Amino acid sequence: MENIRCEGSNICYSDQGKGDVIVLLHGFCGSSAYWEQVIPFLSSNYRVIAPDLRGHGASDAPLGAYTVDQMADDVLSLLNALEIPECYLLGHSLGGYITLSFAQRHASRLKGFGLIHSSGYPDSEEAKENRLKSVSTIQNEGIFAFVDGLVPGLFAPGAAPQLLERTKEIGYRTPPQGAVGAAMAMRERPDRRDVISATMLPVLLVAGAEDSKVPPERTFTSDKPNVTQATIPGVGHMSMYEAPGRLSEIIKDYVHAAVRT
């Protein structure tokens, strides 16, 4: 892992391989480690950058509520610092919300973008209430208790116990104030389905057939010709662990097709 100071904030990131740049953004209470089984597949053909998002992993975790736009601007600052003019930006869950913010406001820096178990929809009223409950759990019971409650629901039934344990291990490292800040960012995010429907860039939408957090119908909000849809059978919200080889193939095929157009 490497560390760089961008706009007064420390960002920790992984940078492997050479070629066209793919930036991978992890989900809530994750880190760049979420991609540990995917990066080896991709870095043989591409330069793969995976940052720890604001409030996660080894990156800075300032106090207070964050915004998705703020977190997207952190990604822009990282690209600027690394002198990367364009990339393919792919985000998992929370990372997908950040990806849509980036695509809406910094499209000139993208060759394409995608959502992995994520959605352009905003939080429902029920989901907003659940975000507040999450904040309460983190503040009153601690990050370990919150992660223990969160992780089992991320996987399809019958997932290998070691995958759940690895995901928990990563989640435990999330600074509590970072988890709180990111939860509030997700709660306040706007509807960005129009970013997907309006763009002319190549878009990748990936869903797990058994994802109870973001069902496929919430991911597949556009079927325009420039949008590639992929459903992975037998997978919940964590294909980077449940089916890393298949997810990597989907990403490779998407980038290969985008380069040719």
Topology of helices and strands:
Layout lengths: L1 E5 L2 E8 L4 E5 L13 H4 L4 E5 L16 H14 L5 E6 L1 H12 L4 E7 L8 H17 L1 H8 L10 H12 L3 H12 L5 H6 L4 E6 L7 H4 L7 E6 L6 H4 L1 H17 L1
Parallel strand pairs: 3-4, 3-5, 5-6, 6-7, 7-8
Antiparallel strand pairs: 1-2, 2-4
Tags for this model:
11 helices, 261 residues, alpha/beta, single chain, 8 strands
Molecular structure report:
It is a single chain. This protein is α/β, with parallel strands linked by helices. It has 11 helices and 8 strands. The chain has an 8-stranded mixed beta sheet with strand order 1-2-4-3-5-6-7-8. Strand 3, helix 1 and strand 4 form a beta-alpha-beta unit. Helix 4 crosses helix 5 and helix 4 packs antiparallel against helix 7. It is globular and about 50 Å long. The two termini are 33 Å apart. The mean pLDDT is 96.
Query: Terminal Cα separation, in Å?
Result: 33 Å
Number of helices: 11
State the low-pLDDT regions, or none. none
**Care to count the β-strands?**
8
Structural class: alpha/beta
Q: Overall pLDDT, averaged?
A: 96
Please sum up the structure shown:
The chain is of the alpha/beta class and 261 residues long. It has helices at residues 39-42, 68-81, 94-105, 125-141, 143-150, 161-172, 176-187, 193-198, 216-219, 239-242, 244-260; strands spanning 2-6, 9-16, 21-25, 47-51, 87-92, 110-116, 203-208, 227-232. 42% of the residues lie in helices and 18% in strands.
